[in-house]
Structures are given as structure tokens and as C-alpha cells.
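Figure 2 data, in text form.
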Amino acid sequence: MKPGANASSALQILGTPLEVTTYDDFISRCQNLVSQPGTHAVEFCNTQIVTMRRHDPKYRELTECIDFFVPDGMPLIWCLNARGAKLKDRVYGPTFMRRCITESQAPLKHYLLGGSEECGQKLREAIYSWNPRANVVGSFHGRCEIDGSLGECDEKIVQEINELAPDFIWIGFGTPKQQAWINRHKASIHHGLLLSVGFAFDVNAGTKKDAPLWMQRIGMTWIYRMVSEPRRLITRYFRYNSLFLFYLLWDGIRGCAFKAMSESE
């Protein structure tokens, strides 16, 4: 966690400081953060994110702007519990988004950034079904480039966000575009919490199905998603799941599986 963000408890897994937290705890912390000046960024982190930060120096540098890495995947919870965290559940991005918005009362404001126009419309409908008093003040649904640029809309969207001053800015461009957008624009945004939630847009809008709860509980969400979108995901999951296990094993052999990257390299 960056200095001054908020009280935090984090443990290192392959060089990434993962928050030891729960849904209720982190919602409370987020509501406290948006009552304070400044801008903070949250990454809902699975094994792919942790592995990419370990494996790819450029991606690690790209994500140095993140203030909180929240464990979104069950394998990360198992690793944290091996260090004594005693967590019963992950903080899953789609579920966190639903719960956070449901518990957000006026004057808290939300901005949606990502997904298609269809996804955006359905997501708004879902949000108001969760919380009829939710305050969604603006949105952008369009293409994000790999460098985090929104093309001709880039400056306009940052200006709009600053004018509307939303407290929660939900970002669903997918990895690594959403992280690149945060890296590119965080310093220009005057207030708010930037939440990198990716798949949460499609799940909560109902444009893509999520894994059954029993698969989620045993850490098999990735299998469900891979079967649902094999062309897009099969190579990614096999690559990063294999690398994640390799780095755990390699660091375990050296007795430094859970130390900071600077100590384990």
C-alpha cells in the first residue's frame, strides 16, 4: 500500500502485496478512502496478475501505480492462508462491485468505464435493480487501446470525470488495458477510487455467465471461463497458471516463496 492511502494489512505472494481483507472490511475501507482527498487505485488480483507482475518487468512497472492488490482468486487465498491469513473467502471483483454499489447511499457517485454500449445499458439496469438509489453520474463504453488510450475521447473523458467527481470509477477494459488506463490517467484524476474489475462488467450485466458457486469455491472458475471462451482464454490460462505454479515451486525450493520480489531474485 502507498503511504497515506489507508490502514492496510498485506502479505507478499510472488512479489505482489495482497490485501488480507474481506468484503465487508474492504467496502468500509473504500467508503473511507473516497471521503478523503486524492485518488487511489485498486486491482482485483488473480493468479494471472500476480504471475505477470513477477514474470514481466514492463507489466510490473505498469502496475506500480496500484495502491491495493485485492485477492480475487481462490488459489491466492490458499497461498495467503499458508502464511496464516485465516481468510474464508476471496474478494471477487463481480461480487464486490454488486455489494459495494448496493451499499452505496447518496451522495456517493459512480462512473462506469468500459464494455460495449449493450453491456453498459444492461449494467445500469442491473445496478438500479440492486439499489434504486444508486447514483451513476456518467459512463464511457467504447474501445480502449493497449496503451490505455481512448483515442479521440481520451482528454474528454478525463475532463468529464473531473467535472462529475465520481467517488467510484469502475473500469472494465480487461487486462492489461484497464491497468494501462489507470497508469496513464491516475495522476490527472483529482478525486475518486479507480477500481480495476474487468470481467465484472459482463457478469453483472448478464452478457456473460459466471461459474457456478461450487466451482468458484474450489478455485475452478478459470476452467468454466476457459470452456466458455476457449479461443480467447485457453492459451492464457495454461501459460499463466503453469508459470504461477513454477514460480511458487522455484521460490519454495529456495525458501522464499512468499517474500518480496526484491528479496527473492
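Caption note: The mean pLDDT is 91.
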